[in-house]
Amino acid sequence: MSTESPDELSSREKEILELVATGATNRQIAAKLTISINTVKTHLRNIFTKLCVESRTEAALWAVKYGVIEMELEGVASVDEDNTSQKVDWGPEPPSALGVGQYLALGVSLLFILLVTFWPKSVQGTRGSVLEDSAQSTEQTEPVRYLARWRTKAPLPTPRSRFAQAQIGSKVFVIGGSSANERRSASVEVYDVAQDSWGRGRDKPSPVANVGAAVVEGLIYVPGGLDASNRVRDILEVYNPQTDTWDTATPLPIPLCAYAIAPFKEGFYVFGGWDGETYRSSVYYYEVSSGAWEEAVPMKTAKGFSAAALVGDRIYLVGGYDGSREVSSCSSYDPVLAAQGEDPWEEHAPMSVRRAGHAVTVFQGNLYVVGGGLVSSFAYNERYDVENNVWSNFESPVLGRWRTLGLSTANTKDGTYLYAVGGWNGNYLGIVEAYQASFRVYLP
Length: 444
What we know:
With 444 residues, the protein is of the alpha+beta class. The protein has helices at 11-21, 26-33, 37-51, 56-65, 100-118, 127-131, 335-339, and strands at residues 77-79, 85-87, 150-152, 160-161, 164-168, 171-175, 178-179, 188-192, 197-201, 214-216, 219-226, 232-240, 245-248, 260-264, 267-274, 279-287, 292-296, 307-311, 314-321, 326-333, 345-348, 359-363, 366-370, 378-385, 390-400, 406-412, 415-421, 432-436. The strands form 8 sheets. The chain has a 4-stranded antiparallel sheet with strand order 3-28-27-26, with no helix packed on it. It has a 4-stranded antiparallel sheet with strand order 5-6-8-9, with no helix packed on it. Helix 2 (26-33) packs across helix 3 (37-51) and helix 4 crosses helix 5 (100-118). The longest helix has 19 residues, at 100-118. It is globular and about 65 Å long.
């Protein structure tokens, strides 16, 4: 969190920050200041960037701590640098500019800030909250429209999160997950990148959430998942897009959900995940031709909700949740070294923040990490330059928590885009936001 002078904020940004601390929503702030909701979001993004914070709560806490906001509610305690409490003299009467309800909201907001700041981290992000979503807002979350390299595409017909996303050619497949109408979904919705339109595939036989998918030889493999009875499954179901049919294959060695998955040669790897009792450090490889699973060299840390992607001959595993907190680590697994009996794991530069429930894809040797937020909130995404072992930030069309979404890379006539689909941000999202990673120019 930044300790820069509050003079870095404009007068309008200070106004918005004061309203954020009262618990006002973006819509309420927009109405009070007679500006658009998207303008509010733009100012919030700038505030987060200037203060080096990742959430409204952290921004409000910064404002209280450094005196940008002067609390004027009798009987509320302040917190000094040494975390000791002091009684504050708020004066005989509150100004007439704020009503009683707003003062009550202000007090509740401050109490919430103090609890979030000093409450033990192990209490935050319980099992239920990381394995399930719950709608917390009646408003549909809208992406920030002003971002130059993001484009809004045809929305996902069924807003949902925690699904498996796979890509074959110009088609993106969204499989299973959770939605407002279905706690566990079996639906298969297919996005045509070239046509910017959606179609349907045959439903998955077993409705599950917290799953991933790997494409091997034109087939989509979806292992495990969490069913409607909160039972973690060991199933392996296989979708053939050419025939629009499902089949079953050899089950996982153990039940798993919330794992990371990545294809490799004639099969795929499954990293970590939740087995119904604990987070795992296990790594399994499935070989398609033999239909056999084999146990590989485990991760250094047990975790779930990581994201994995293949770059060259190494699989990169980014972030995750270890049962008590999100992690920022970036490591890679070399199957060739593992086959030679050597340690296949290598640690790389970590992300700038801890993330879990994010998605990752690859373009031109770079990892692109979008979203996250089982516990935390974010104002930006991150890009990893594999060759130089360096992370950098790039803008996000959704602020706060944007978790358990899908992400794919697809070529179009205008260039290469990253397609970020669905997820959860207080509500189940049906958004499809495309980030232009490269441009294609046609010369006469």
